[in-house]
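Q: What structure does this chain adopt?
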Amino acid sequence: MFKFCPKCASEKINFIDGKLFRCPDCGFVYYHNTAAATGCIITGLTQQILFLVRGKNPEKGKLDLPGGFVDPGEGAIEGLYREIQEEIGWTPTVPDGVPLAKVFTLFASFPNVYTFKNIDYNTCDLYFHINAPGLCERDLRLQPGEIDGVRFLKPEEINYSEFAFESTCRAVRAFLTPGL
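A:
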């Protein structure tokens, strides 16, 4: 990631234990920490799950769940809520006075590696569930360039080899097989 120290431009910068950059010349230290990311299983009356078709790399054309990186200053649920609105143009119903934590249910968390422009970002993917009876494709406004389409799949229709990320595959399996 760094060929030169960002502080003093030394070429001696070291990457230690897959997480720490340290410059022996000036003492610069940078921790390449794990980023928080979210995903959401959205189900309806028929227990179909809403999947997104990724519109860009990494893994363009593969299946994913609504969600994404948590921005600075956000909690995981607030980040998920924002990402759902951005990606599919749908706003989950939140009754007055009810916190988002009562609308989304956390059910799993898995590590992941998200490679973007040849840089590996380690993520901690937090997976939530929300039931949305009656939600259908006409209710959605897909984010251009990010999302190429949606698929509503019943559990028996899911092909796990079509998923963009192993953590998504693990989350869907965990959701469909509680106690796994």
